[in-house]
Each structure stands twice: as structure tokens, then as C-alpha cells.
User: What shape does this take?
Amino acid sequence: MGKLFSKTYLALRQEILSGKLASGKCLVEQPLADKFGVSRTPIREAIRQLQQEGLVESDRRGGLRVTVVTIADAIHLYDCRLGLEQIAAMGACENATPAQLEDLQDCLAQANLADSIVTETIGNNSSGLSISPEQSDELENRLRIDQSFHRLLAESSGNPQLVDLLEQVFSKMALLRLTTTYQQPDVLEIWAEHERIIEAIMQRDSQAAAVAVRDHLIASKARVVQALQGLRTGASLQGIALF
Amino acid sequence: MGKLFSKTYLALRQEILSGKLASGKCLVEQPLADKFGVSRTPIREAIRQLQQEGLVESDRRGGLRVTVVTIADAIHLYDCRLGLEQIAAMGACENATPAQLEDLQDCLAQANLADSIVTETIGNNSSGLSISPEQSDELENRLRIDQSFHRLLAESSGNPQLVDLLEQVFSKMALLRLTTTYQQPDVLEIWAEHERIIEAIMQRDSQAAAVAVRDHLIASKARVVQALQGLRTGASLQGIALF
DNA sequence: TGTATACCCGTTGTATACAAACTTTCTTTA
DNA sequence: TAAAGAAAGTTTGTATACAACGGGTATACA
Assistant: This one.
């Protein structure tokens, strides 16, 4: 179907996730409609969709803006993931199909491959502050792989409700993760943690899987919080709002 | 603000949650607009809102209908609650305010009060199949109390994201409740389980709280599954109550 | 100069008209 | 009679016009 609203939705989403529409930016219907060459109606639909995803939130004055993710939100979202993904891992131990297990392993393989490429071509990023386009692409790639892993994990649980809820959490974190991954290029630990999760699931050991997920998310949360606090002290951003 | 869409949203929501708009019923914009005396625009807005809440889902043919909650969904939703509410309880141990603790205790007191009233006026329901209006009201009351408890628990965590996610789960479970009528569950056990949760939280013992929540939800899930299985085998739709 | 009021402009909410896609049914033809 | 196609009806998508609400500014008056 050639619906305009889905096109504008995708375009808007891309603008938000790429940072062209910055967090906190007010979304006004008519200018957006002009920008995309459509009327206000599909813009409204698109914004509603984004609101549903958590990428757009209502302002205090009833207006709409790109969601602002605070440090507190990041922590809260990680706690939600902690609860949901432990259940997902336990469910995966019971219900993951062979194909899904294979997908998870593929994901890990891609991760290692991507990591080796980055290590070869770029090396570690401890030297400078600036990030080249190639680095940016590779880091973007890692982010995608990580997201794929967690999405596959959710799907492997065989619980569609869980998938839906986690999807929402991931959407809200997308803004956050976009900025934090650049600050935290050392992801070898992450892949190791993913491997432990997969191993536990393949052994159908739900307790071990839950523990592995818990450890992974607690570690990730710590990494992100550290990165965010570093960001905050570096810039002169007032209060809790980060972006 | 006297926005029409919020009025129609509330009206539609009420119709869905009261069962006047049955699960699976297709939602067509123009008839609904005629029914509520508004144009299609606010109807669309309201439906989008309900879709966001999970009370409306898209049909296979792209149409919209009142969400259909299956038995499998019920089990999956309980698993989601299991994950989220354990986190909520642990959060509550850290962040619950004295006022919130008091509210939780009030909730329990109301539960005991309601229970004694039901016991006095009605007695247990082991005898017959039919349920009087008074019984129905009292069971409705208990359901509200139970929902209040879990809502307060979520809020006590101090995690708004968690509150949002649990709200969605509760909404969908409310739909399931409508597909059947009530059956008197063993409520004394439920209140006792609630009490254990509160005690753990008041002692700020997050591990105990998580265990208490886990035990409670596993028991609740078992109760519901048992009721559902009996419902399937038995000819008469006695129904279930979700606690 | 400070405050209050009135008006203008920007933004969202609502109604309505029209278009496009899909369904269904009836008709026509092989 | 069956199948294919066309026409009518249904439903959602889109554009647009207008209304209502609110904020900000300018002006008038104290």
C-alpha cells in the first residue's frame, strides 16, 4: 500500500534516530507537512505512531516533542529490560526453536566478525575524540547486531506480549543507545556476555540463562550510566536532561 | 480541556472494558462517529490511543478490532507481570515513600474488610452456579482492590517506565476478564500473599519482596490456568476472576 | 514605568469533501 | 453453468477549511 503516512513515518523516524531532529525538539504539524510535501493528516498519523513507540512524547503544555531521555529514564529502562529479558531467556530455554538458536549464534558470529574488522581497520579508539565515518558505520553496525541479538532473544521466548513490551523499551532506548555506543566502543565484553547467554539457553538451563541475562544487563547499565555521567560532567548541561 | 477526542476515547474505552464492544468486534470509523455524534477525526484519534494501550489491534486485513485475548495470551501476560513486578517490588524496597507504604497497607485493610463483608452477606459460593448482583458487585470490588494493590506496587518502585508497561499488561488482562464471567477464587490466600509482599517491602528486603511477588504471581497464574482448563472441559461457562 | 487588557498569530482540534483501495455482487460471455 | 469482468458499495486515507485555545506583544492607562 502506498500510504503516505507510512512513508512520512519512516522519514520522521529516521530523522529522529539519526539525530537530525534532536531530542526535545518541538514537533509542529504544519512545518513538517510542508517539509514532506503532504498535508497535516498523515503527519499526525505518523506522529501518533512515533508516540506509540516512545520516540515522541507530549510536552508539558500539551505540545509534542522528540522524547528526551534522561539518566533516570535510562536506568529505569534498563530495570524494565532486566525484568523482561530474564523472563525472555527463561522462556527461550523452553521454547526456542533450532532455527532461532541458529540465528542467535549467527548473531554472535557476525558480532565477532564486525569486531575483528573494526580492530583491523581502526584499532581502539583510546587515542582521539573524533570519529571517522568508517568508525561511525562500524559502531552503527555493532549497535544493530546488539539489537538483533536482544530482539531474537525476545522472539525465542515464544511470548508475543513480551516481544511487544521489549520492543517499546528498545525504541525508547534507541535514542539513548545512539549516543552512548559512541562513547563505549569497547564491546568485547558485551559479546562474551552474549555468548554466555546463548550457551545457557542451548543447554536449556533457565536459571543459568536468567543469571547470564541479569549479569549482562547490570553490566550494560553500569557502562551506560558511566558514559552518561561522563557526558554530563563534560558538557555544561543543566539538570538531568542530557540531549 | 474539552477535547472531543478525549471524551470519545473514554467512552470507547468504557464500552470495551465493560464488554459492550465485544472482543474481536471490528471498529469502523463512520458508525462510531455517528454513534458518538462526532466526526471521524476524533474517533480516529481515540482509536489510535486505544491501539497504543493494547485494547485495539489491527486485523489481518488492515482493519481494526477490539483486541482478542486468548488463554495463551493470559499465560504470556502473567509471565510479563512476573518479570516486571519483581523489579517493581525490588524498586519499591528502595524507593517507596511512607505515604505509598501506607496506601499499600490501606489496600490490604480494604481487602480484609471487603472479604469479611462478602463472607457475612454471601458466604462461599460452593453451592450454586448463579451469581447474584450483590455477589457480582463484591467480586468486582475485590478485583478493583487487587488491581489497586498492584498499581500501587508499580508506582512505589519510582519507575514511571515500569508503571506504563504494567498498565498495558493490566489493560489487556482486563479484556480477558470480560470474555468470561466471574468465579470466586480463593481470595484469602491472595490477601495473605499480598501481605507477605508488603512486609518484605516494609523491611526493605528486596530479595524477599521479589520472592514474595514471584510466589504470588506463580500461584495466581496457576489459579487462572486451572480455572481456564476447568472452563474448557466443563460445559457451563462459569468463568474466572483474575487476581 | 509598570500593569492590565485587547488583539494578533501560531498551533492544534474538528468537520467535511474527495480519492483510492478493496469487496461484493451482478451481468455477460464462453 | 461457470468464470471473468464490470459496476456499486464500503471503508480507510488524504487534503483542506474553519474553529477554538493559548501565548505573546503592543498599546493604553494608571
Notes: Confidence is low (pLDDT under 50) at residues 122-129, 234-241 of chain B. Residues 77 and 169 of chain B are 6 Å apart (CA to CA). The beta strands of chain B are 56-58, 64-66.
